[in-house]
Amino acid sequence: MTASISVRPYSIETLQLIRTHFRKKASFALWKYGTDYWSAPLRTFLVGNLPVTFISAIAYMSSGLQYEGEITHNFWDALYLSGVTITTLGYGDATPVGFGKVVAVVESMFGILLFSFVLVLFTRKYID
């Protein structure tokens, strides 16, 4: 005696319903993870500002910067310039050369946005 198993294929409507259900669940999970991840101010600072600072320092190092009257490609001078630029202090003792000027503009915009975002997170965390 053999048992026959009949497999009933799903209709297109059922498959679309399953797909939209899992898409909603997946997008909610990603959104929740993303908002929980960026809610810690220190984590936001470390993940947001430090990579921008180091990537910009590498860009300054490769394009060169004028520090104390001479062109240099030293990593520590480039990291100093990157830290001064992302905090928008602008001491003026180190200046980017060539493509580094474009990097400085983009980095200062990132610095303004990321530091203000961290400030909002600190305020929201301690006021509530």
Q: What does this 3D model show about the protein?
A:
The protein has helices at 12-37, 41-63, 75-86, 100-127, and strands spanning 65-67, 70-72, 94-96. The protein has 128 residues and is mainly alpha-helical. It has a domain at 39-127: Helix Hairpins, CATH 1.10.287. It has a 3-stranded antiparallel beta sheet. It is elongated and about 75 Å long. The N and C termini lie far apart (70 Å). The mean pLDDT is 78.
User: Under CATH, the topology of the domain at 39-127 is which?
Assistant: Helix Hairpins
Q: How large a portion of the residues is in β-strands, by DSSP E?
A: 5-15%
Structural class: mainly alpha
- How do the strands line up in the largest sheet? 2-1-3
Question: In terms of per-residue confidence, which ranges show pLDDT below 50 for 5 or more consecutive residues?
Answer: none
Compressed to H and E, one letter per element, the order equals HHEEHEH
Q: Using only CA atoms, what is the Rg?
A: 25 Å
Shape: elongated
Largest sheet: 3 strands, antiparallel
Give a count of the beta strands, DSSP E runs of length 2 or more.
3
**Tell me, what is the CATH class of the domain at 39-127?**
Mainly Alpha
Helix content: 55-70%
List the helices and strands and how they pair.
Layout: H1 12-37, H2 41-63, E1 65-67, E2 70-72, H3 75-86, E3 94-96, H4 100-127
Antiparallel strand pairs: 1-2, 1-3
Short description:
The chain is mainly α and 128 residues long. It has four helices and three strands.
Keywords:
Helix Hairpins; mainly alpha; 7% strand; elongated; 128 residues; single chain
